[in-house]
Fold this protein.
Amino acid sequence: MKEITDELMMQMISQAKLYSIVLLKSGPNYGKPENQPIIWEHARRNFALREEGLLSVVCPVSDDTDLKGIGIFNAALEQTKEIMEGDPGVIAGVFNFEVHTARSFPGDSLPK
């Protein structure tokens, strides 16, 4: 493993930027077959948010918990809350969400 110096750590920490993390959870209407079109539109909206540069990372969660997805937004906490309140899945009660402020480093990405 590469040695990480204190100087490198301080340099990287100084470049950290605020992001918003969304934890998407199942809502009271989750799992109803008639809601599949709503989930499809939720996904379409996620693609549009990615195209606009607002949703930097989106990770659907497919285990058997109430957590259904994680999103990292390139937006402030309040803006992210407003974005999520307009989500078709949230409006329909298919999903609930939590928003948290987090820091990360510009340019971080998932491996290809």
